UniProtKB/TrEMBL annotation:
<feature type="transmembrane region" description="Helical">
    <location>
        <begin position="102"/>
        <end position="125"/>
    </location>
</feature>
<dbReference type="InterPro" id="IPR036938">
    <property type="entry name" value="PAP2/HPO_sf"/>
</dbReference>
<feature type="transmembrane region" description="Helical">
    <location>
        <begin position="216"/>
        <end position="236"/>
    </location>
</feature>
<dbReference type="Pfam" id="PF14378">
    <property type="entry name" value="PAP2_3"/>
</dbReference>
<feature type="transmembrane region" description="Helical">
    <location>
        <begin position="6"/>
        <end position="28"/>
    </location>
</feature>
<feature type="domain" description="Phosphatidic acid phosphatase type 2/haloperoxidase">
    <location>
        <begin position="138"/>
        <end position="257"/>
    </location>
</feature>
<dbReference type="InterPro" id="IPR000326">
    <property type="entry name" value="PAP2/HPO"/>
</dbReference>
<dbReference type="InterPro" id="IPR052185">
    <property type="entry name" value="IPC_Synthase-Related"/>
</dbReference>
<dbReference type="InterPro" id="IPR026841">
    <property type="entry name" value="Aur1/Ipt1"/>
</dbReference>
<feature type="transmembrane region" description="Helical">
    <location>
        <begin position="132"/>
        <end position="156"/>
    </location>
</feature>
<feature type="transmembrane region" description="Helical">
    <location>
        <begin position="40"/>
        <end position="62"/>
    </location>
</feature>
<keyword id="KW-0812">Transmembrane</keyword>
<feature type="transmembrane region" description="Helical">
    <location>
        <begin position="242"/>
        <end position="260"/>
    </location>
</feature>
<protein>
    <submittedName>
        <fullName>PAP2 superfamily protein</fullName>
    </submittedName>
</protein>
<keyword id="KW-0472">Membrane</keyword>
<keyword id="KW-1133">Transmembrane helix</keyword>
<dbReference type="GO" id="GO:0016020">
    <property type="term" value="C:membrane"/>
</dbReference>
Amino acid sequence: MGLLEVAAQVGGGVLVLFVVGFAVVVGPSRMRTPADAVRSNLRTVAPVLGVLLVVLAANGVVRDVGLELSWLIGINITGYIHAVEGEFVAFLQSLSTPALTAYFGFVYVFGYVFVLTFPLAAYLLHDDPSSLYELVVAYIVNYGVGLVCYVVFIAYGPRNFMPELVESLLYTTWPEAQLLTTEVNTNTNVFPSLHTSLSVTVAILAYRFRRVYPRWFPISGALALSISVSTMYLGIHWATDVVAGVGLAVLSVSVARWTTEAPNPDGRRHPRTYLFGDGWADGVRRWWRER
């Protein structure tokens, strides 16, 4: 099985999750959102979507050349992480069962892609673009900080650092998955865990905007917890990476929240378009006067 077949398999699985998510979380009434409202939301978030695409492209470039740069200017912190937490990941794997391995392998790949992409589509259908705007800004911060950390910090995951104790459970049960994961990451980019930071970011924003989709918070929260545990259970990340990922998620949501204005008289929150859109200079002067 090649890369395209694996990608198609993941895409098909995520598509099924989307169908279930729209039925359970969004509902038929929201799915009938007028096209004008969707286009308006897209126009509002277009500037930050552009920034996100640039950051993702930069991540792709750094993934190709960043390893050499890391070895020139980076700090190898793998030994320090191991000294702090010892063999915790090995202990976690000692509790493994075939059922747990299948579950955590599923959420690490399929659940992660779903939890990242589904809220983008769901929030796009809401009449207030603030939830979508904050989600995209939070993604930018996650990937941006992660990019810097992956250059500054060299860290091998437990499966690479102590292979005699920690098994690559994902690859032993589904070897083809390695074709996909090697396309988006390298084995020295584990601190912090972006799987954790991005999924926890989604869960925090799901709680923050729980009135938009009340059912999304418990679902995203369960997925975020499962994905975070899966990164350790499968031997990919240390607990330290997960803790750092949670901290990055909190930082990302805080920055995203700052980029929205105080509520208007109508009770709705609107993006600070002067940060990423038209009227930037006037917006900065307005911001300075308000402070």
